[in-house]
Amino acid sequence: MAFDTIPPLGLGTFGRTGDAGIAAIETALEIGYRHLDTAQSYDTEKTVGEAVRRSGLARDEVFITTKVADTNFAPADFMPSVRKSLDTIGVDQVDLLLIHWPVPEETVPFESYMTALKQAQDDGLARLIGVSNYTIAHLERAAALLGKDALATNQVEIHPWLQVPKLRDYARGESLQLTAYQPLVKGQVADDPVLKSIAAELDTSPAAVALAFLMAEGHIVIPASSSRGNLEANFSATGLTLAPEQMDAILQLNRGYRHINPTKSPRWDD
User: Fold this and answer.
1) What is the crossing angle of helices 244-251 and 206-216, to 10°?
2) Which residues contact 122 (CB under 8 A, 6 or more apart)?
3) Domain of residue 114, residue span
4) I want to staple 33 with a disulfide (CB 3.0 to 4.6 A). Which of 28, 39, 227, 267 is the partner?
5) Are strands 35-37 and 63-68 parallel, antiparallel or unpaired?
6) Residue 45 domain-assigned (yes or no)
7) In a domain, 123, yes or no
8) 213-228 pLDDT per residue, tens
């Protein structure tokens, strides 16, 4: 089974290292997750590969994403780093390869690493390519360089308190899916009164409500957890449908609260 599109709910694997990390990813696969998100900088590529092998699932049953770290963008480093990632995971090809962060002040030219990303796809190292933490200006430059439909996704922080309306509307206009990282703000949204109220109405968790909202908005979500209970609750969002008035209530929660904002961040649109 090859995936025609990116599965709408995946598992973020940041922090899932060592034997405990392998166990958590195995549990997720047992529950039904079929999309795993890793990165060169997470130190979880090895645990992702090992968990998939232990699961007994065929390679084409699990969608694997990894990201090239901005420390590997130089022409001499980019492709060797991708091949090392494939060796570390234990696969011949990843389903999706992302640029993790755009380089501030272009210490490596944008055109250089974006062209290298496309070359990795052309060489068969990645089935799909995309980006992470890109602004509208970055996306426009990428489209001009690689073509309008070259990128499969832009992975950015999105959750009920940070709904990125400018980027969301731009991406919709370009038929580009956004992938929401930190969709639960490390569990903080579970205390939101509106989400708690809707969860009570639907006999589910506030986290599931948040994830169902984001997927209904058209986004891919990659929540992270090691707890079976949380993994199950998050996965249940795939079967949850929110009423229009519930969607409207959550839309009102946007307040531009950004959780991930390192010094290398670009000038965000929202």
Assistant:
1) 100
2) none
3) 11-185+217-225
4) 28
5) parallel
6) yes
7) yes
8) 999 999 999 999 999 9
Domain total in the chain = 1
Asked, for residue 208, whether it belongs to a domain, the answer is no
So what's the pLDDT on residue 1? Answer: 58
How many CA within 13 A on the CB side of residue 73?
20
CATH for 118: 3.20.20.100
Q: Is the pTM of this model over 0.90?
A: yes
Which residues are identified as catalytic? Answer: 42
